[in-house]
Structure formats: C-alpha cells, structure tokens
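Q: Cytochrome c peroxidase, please. Structure only.
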Amino acid sequence: MRTVVYSKLKPAGMLVLFVLMAFYSLQDIQLIYPSYFPVPAYDFKARPLKRAVIQLGRKLFYDPVLSRSNTISCSSCHQQQHAFSDVGNRLSKGIEDGIGDRNSPAIFNLAWQKTFMWDGSVGNIDVQALAPINHPKEMGEDINVVVRKLNASKEYRTLFYRSFGDSLATAERAMKALSQFQLTIVSANTKYDRVKQGKATFTGKEIKGYELFRKNCNACHTEPLFSGYGFANNGLPVHPELKDYGKWNKTMEPQDRLMFKIPSLRNLAYTYPYMHDGRFGTLHEVLEHYEKGIVKSPGLAKELQQPIIFNPDEKDALLTFLAALNDSTLVSDSSFGKPK
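A: Structure for Cytochrome c peroxidase:
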C-alpha cells in the first residue's frame, strides 16, 4: 500500500483527499446485531448511521463540557466498565454533589427501545440527552450554552464539519451525534449469545436455570434482549422519601401509577444496584422481593399476583444462568471507550 505524505501533496491533491475523507466519513454504516434479535425500533432508513457522526457523539459522550461546571459527562453516570451504568450509586450523582431522582440505567441495545428514562417520558433517543443536560441536579446546563461552548472550540468545529458538511454546532446536531454513538452500543456477546450461535453449550446448572427463567421471568424480561422494554408495576413499595410513582409522576393517569420501565437482565454483574431507585444491592435481595416483598396494588403485573418462590438449589441455578447474560466484550471494547 502506498503511503500518502500530506505535506507533499499539491493543493488540488489535498482537495481530492479531503473530499474522499469526507465521503468515507459520511457513508452510511449498518448496525451489527445477531440474526435472532428482533428488528430495531429505531428507523435507520430515515436516520442512517454515519461514521463521522458516531465519532463526534463518542467524543461528546465523554466530554464534561456538556455540564454547567465542566465536571460531569454522560460517561460519569454511564461507565463502560459497568455496562454503561453507574455501579454502586443508588441514585445518579451530578454537579456540585447533586443527587438525582433515580438510578442511572444501563445504556445498551437502545435501538430496540421506543421510550427512554425509567418513566418513558422521552419518546425519541435523538433528543434524550437534553433531559440530563437540563436537569438541575445532573448536568445543570442550558443546551444553548453548550452550543456556544462547542462553537468556541476549533476541534469541535472541525468534527462538526466532518459530520455535517459545515462547522456549525447546533443543539439538534449535538443530540443526533450523541444518539448515534449510543445506538451503536450493542450487547450481543454473552455466553447465551454464543449458545444461540452454536459456539458454546450450557452447563447442566445453566440449563436448569434457563428453564426456571423461561417459566418465571421471560414474560417481562423477554429473550433475546431480556426485556420487552415495556412498563410494569412490580410490587415495589413506594420509597418514603423519593415518592416516585413512575409514569404517573408525569401523566397523572391512574393506569400509570407505579409503572416503571422493565430493564434488561443482560449484564447484571456490572449494573448493580437494582431497580429504579437502586434499593437492592444484590440479586439475592431482588429474588427475596419477588418471594416476600411484593406489595399488591391496582395495576400490579398479573405475573406477580402470586409470589415467585425458589428453593436454594433453584436460586443457585437461576443466578448461574443469569451470569451467562454478562457481556465481557461490551465492557472492554475500545471502540466504545473514551477517545484518545
């Protein structure tokens, strides 16, 4: 392969090179996922992925410039090594030691989700990032100020030019870049996936756990994504301080009371604590809730009208199967990490 030395190229040659680079960066690319995954909910035909836009979004995701104090980035609460969750923190932490209202959800397989946030209050991933940016206890910034900061940066003006054909940063373009990067974060390389692809086999204990899962959990945590990303009342008692009623907080509709988005069971080893308010630190506590802690109320999921009880051996088998849903590739893939 011939090496091109930029400094020796004539102006016409430089122009051709930059045109080729721009064409390469703006080509549509395909989201890669297994054949047994359902069709994504996101409309990639209308809004195709672009390589340069993804890379811009990746830089924005890790840049604290999005916060008022220039100290909090998206990655502060969505850390790659923890499957893009905020492991160990019950509630999200923001600028000036602010504490958010809910646990930071893991962000992977977003292309299959129609709504976002624990209460589904955002219906379009292309604008979702506005919520944490504007939240006074999270990033606490005005998006118009963010745009001014981006336009004041020579590096960002170059990246916006590569992504959109001109160097002007806008709120719409910044949000689109963030969403394009996040849409590429796909979790599909667990042992479960390798079994589905015929590249591995389950142990006897994993098979038993898989059977227990399909009998007791699959209705809400539907495979292969291990969530249908709908909403359910799972019988949690209302936290006395947070007073969080899920979708009802926004809609005030009776049927939405205590309805929270159903999270995926993929990557549970990386995403503790669990539930919308991070109240459970271990999976044993989660199972104990479904056995002893369900509070009956109108709208309680029909699957939870009776407690779900496992004996010790069954718990062990179920947890062994759930461990087969952890994606070590996701948490270590350098293409998702902070840009150099």
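A: Brief note, in case it's useful. Residues 1-9, 14-21 have pLDDT under 50 and may be disordered.
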